[in-house]
Write a structure and sequence with these properties.
heterodimer; B: 176 residues; alpha+beta; Thiol Ester Dehydrase, Chain A; 6-stranded antiparallel beta sheet
């Protein structure tokens, strides 16, 4: 595979011993622009609901602009967690509640915390995460991961 | 006369459609369109050499992507079994609950879909709130349905419960 791609992948993983309850997941900041909203809906998730690519349709639905679809929010949150812990961890569940919509021009700042660590029946952690826009929380959620 | 829930909504709860196969089998192109947007750096999704020697035995699709395999084609219109949320949407629309917004979801990931494999899914209506609730956007019913995704061997890949609210925009409410 091409080096230009490999250079951006994450091959190392956090060791079981090195993760503890209360650990913070390093926060990330993702600028939201129309390209992210449209590519997230149309290209990544095949969601052609007009409010995610057509400003007029979004306005008719009462929103000021197009906004992120839930599949994209979910994919961003999943990647936030697994980009931190690495490929030797398996995402087993992810749950999220949508709060305020995320519009182009906003920044999405995601933070997370390890809330539980246990090894019965398999080495597992639970994390909680929040993604904030400049106007308030876009989503809150949690995820469970196991160490291979 | 009973409530809308008792009279028209309740009878649909628990109904599940027959299995539907994804338009496309899992493929590296659709995976890449997903990971480019998410900036997902897991080599299991995009590095064939790493994936082949990993516990996955080859490229797999992100579990977070499962719902994508259920999405309808833009063209041509595809005949699929009626989803159990359709009658609910029709009834609520008739009653003035015309707008929809997703409010939350949960995915349970059992196995990852492998490159080249088709994904089959079903949709089951799990619940509808018995009474409309007051929300910031207007009076709303919350509808929860659940996808089940399987691979060609019949192995459960995962489930996803999805909740949306169907609301009557505030401005359209009749004056008291």
């Amino acid at each position: 595979m091409a080096t230009w791609m490999k250079d951006h992948l994450k091959y190392d993983s956090i060791a079981w011993e090195d993760v503890n309850e209360g650990d913070e997941i390093p926060s990330t900041v993702r600028p939201i622009d129309a390209t992210l909203v449209v590519m997230g809906a149309v290209a990544a998730s095949r969601d052609v609901y007009p409010v995610h690519h057509d400003v007029e349709a979004a306005k008719a639905a009462g929103a000021p602009d197009i906004f992120l679809n839930i599949l994209t929010t979910n994919g961003l949150m999943a990647a936030f967690v697994t980009n931190w812990c690495g490929p030797d961890w398996d995402l087993r569940s992810i749950s999220l509640k949508l709060l305020i919509p995320a519009f182009p021009g906003q920044k999405l700042t995601t933070t997370g915390t390890v809330t539980r660590k246990y090894d019965d029946p398999v080495p597992s952690i639970e994390v909680e995460f929040t993604a904030e826009t400049d106007f308030g929380p876009h989503c809150k959620g949690s995820a469970t991961l196991t160490r291979a | 006369m009973g409530s809308l829930y008792e009279d028209r909504l309740k009878e649909h709860i628990g109904k599940e459609c027959s299995p539907i196969e994804s338009v496309d089998a899992v493929c590296t192109q659709m995976i890449r369109h997903w990971i480019e947007v998410m900036e997902d750096a897991n080599p299991a999704y995009s590095d064939p050499e790493w994936a082949a020697q990993s516990r996955h035995g080859g490229i797999v699709a992100p579990g977070s992507m499962m719902q994508v395999w259920s999405m309808a084609p833009l063209w041509p219109e595809r005949e699929i079994p009626q989803l159990p949320i359709e009658p609910i949407d029709e009834i609520l629309t008739e009653e003035g609950f015309t707008e929809v917004v997703a409010t939350g979801q949960t995915q349970e990931i059992h196995e990852l879909a492998r490159d080249g494999e088709a994904v089959t899914f079903t949709v089951r209506l799990a619940s509808v709130t018995e009474e409309p609730k007051k929300t910031r956007l207007g009076l709303a019913y919350f509808v929860t349905f659940e996808y089940r995704f399987t691979n060609p061997a019949g192995t459960l890949l995962g489930t996803q419960s999805f909740t949306y609210m169907r609301y009557r925009p505030e401005a359209e409410e009749p004056a008291a």
